[in-house]
Amino acid sequence: MEAHVDKDTCIGCGLCPSICDAVFEMDDDGKAVAKNPEVPSEHEDEAKDAEASCPVSAIVVK
């Protein structure tokens, strides 16, 4: 499973790292980034929760 953040869509709300900090973090530009694009199996549910919670649908986890 891989995670991707569309930085053009991201508004930098910080919700995704608060839900799944094993995969997501805030970058220097204030936008989210998948620091670990290859989602560890033990964090797949959290990564999917972050995807579903993104207010602008900037995250894809598949």
TrEMBL record:
Biased composition (Basic and acidic residues): 40-51
Gene3D superfamilies: 3.30.70.20
Pfam families to which the protein is assigned, alphabetical: Fer4_15
UniProt key word Transport: yes
Annotated signal sequence range: none
Keywords associated with the record: Electron transport, Iron, Iron-sulfur, Metal-binding, Transport
Region spans: Disordered: 36-62
InterPro entries, sorted: 3Fe4S_ferredoxin, 4Fe4S_Fe-S-bd, Fe-S_cluster_ET
Species of the source: Clostridium sartagoforme
Listed name of the protein: Ferredoxin
UniProt domain 4Fe-4S ferredoxin-type: residue ranges: 1-29
Lineage: Bacteria, Bacillati, Bacillota, Clostridia, Eubacteriales
Stated role: Ferredoxins are iron-sulfur proteins that transfer electrons in a wide variety of metabolic reactions.
GO molecular function, one term: iron-sulfur cluster binding
Domain of life: Bacteria
